[in-house]
């Protein structure tokens, strides 16, 4: 508790430092305790209240169990990997590799998406195949290219483990069950909320929070030259829909949203992701094919890869090289260091 | 003239305000995301959740996808996040209702019986290819291909019988899929699995009477094609072979095999996976209608023959397993896939 008090004083004293800096400073001796680093927190300023399903109201106990499960390698068939193996906090809970590596070195077929503000999202995976965070938590365990284990078998491995028996009991009043696994992991992911970037502070009136290049980039982003805001819109910088952004070309195996709708009009459309923390979540696009934000802006300035289904918005982008740089600078202002280093999200290794 | 930056800031702020307004209550801006009906039942909620992700006809996201494609250059900004948040609220509510009591209440493990007094009539499915008995592992010729069927599963559900008196306007009789002792099968559905010969037979609890036919669905009722599979037991559990690994809902029909043609000694996969993804909010079961005259009798199984040639031909002609699965479900009612055998078409004694 003393540490928290000091942190508060410091925060008040020096405007520029962040809780994240302080968390880092304390990381060496800090086992992230529930009291110091809660998972269930108020929504950031300007955000709607965090939506939770009525049958899975968000509690600290569920989220903490969910975090434990998120980092639990025994949920993979070979006990090699966990969710956290491919969703790295300092990368916005994304994977720096174009494709992630599952059990036995198996390579996945899409870029692992960042896990940011998914509480506000209505469908998941690049094609929106599932529509709740609870359902979403099943697929990575069972996917042969990821953890490759039947969910029931995975959860059965936790039975008799004193720590899990206790955590499940605290969260749900039961032992480990597949259904409560989904509710716990869904709860943890729901707490991964990022809303304290420099751009947020700028919007709150701190005009010095952005430099001139970033301000120019913001204007381009929100204007008819960059066109970015048509899809990356609102507090979460996504319209939560599906778009063909010029990445898919004929012959690609991955048809995107069409797989879900069986509608050819959806061929090549993929989920529009949030851009929060985008500067640290490289590589980009559903296939991880663009390594840097400069590459992404160049991709858009070139109107994608020439597929005839590319959305009209992409085709109307007009950006000079200098303008692209300004937008990249602006995107950097969407990084939320507090989120990327929050101690409460870290694996709890204490016994 | 406001600068672009000011304009952007205003847009962003307006959106924040709009989003905030939509918090905590269902959004009037997105009627498509609202549960139809009273919205309190798991069923209505589940439908709303499904529609949310949308098929092209009814779903909010299906429509949304079209908007996104057209670019929506002017207004995009002001309306979209409200809609988005409305959808979020609707979806979360939907997931909640469907998941809580809804999962069990609406896709009940033991649904309320439709027939309270009846005879447990056993039906046995015999597999044939060109009318000859077929067994798993048999290699058959379709066109110039040698075809081997390794996996074949489908759900049966929603069975009703056509009463003898149907000609006089008497309605079909919904009946329950039950085990040999008359207990309703989990969720009231039956999973046929080529690998498990026990699954080749199913039982119906049939009211005493005479019947001229049977109607049944290959697939699941929509109420069971949503909800959290982690809360269910087989055959609707999370690791059910019918669970789409990457999607919401279940396969209704799953066919896998290999095909070898003379020009290429390397066997090629033949896959057809069909269903209605829960996210699409559609039903999409194949509704079969079988002619056959019978009266229920305990300990006297009725044989149905399942002819595999047409489904194998169809599967082999499709290059995409999802399109193939959908095409198969669409075609099944016309394929003479499942039928009473000639021996069963005996007039029962009047």
The separation of the N and C termini of chain B measures 90 Å
State the secondary-structure class of chain B. alpha+beta
Total strands of chain A: 2
Helices of chain A, by number, come to 16
Shape of chain A: globular
Task: Summarize the biggest pleated sheet of chain A.
Answer: 2 strands, antiparallel
Cross-sheet strand order for the largest sheet of chain A:
1-2
Secondary-structure element series of chain A:
HHHHHHHHHHHEHEHHHH
CA-based gyration radius of chain A: 21 Å
Over all CA atoms, what is the radius of gyration of chain B? 24 Å
User: How many DSSP H or I helices of chain B?
Assistant: 6
Biggest sheet record of chain B: 8 strands, antiparallel
Write up this protein.
The complex is a heterodimer of chains A (351) and B (350). Chain A has 351 residues and is an all-alpha fold. Helix content of chain A is 35%, strand content 1%. In chain A, helix 3 (60-70) packs across helix 9 (178-190), helix 11 crosses helix 15 and helix 13 crosses helix 15 (321-332). Chain A starts with a helix and ends in a 10-residue tail after the last helix. With 350 residues, chain B is of the alpha+beta class. In chain B, the strands form 2 sheets. In chain B, strands 3, 4, 5, 7, 9, 10, 11 and 12 form an 8-stranded antiparallel sheet that branches. Chain B is globular.
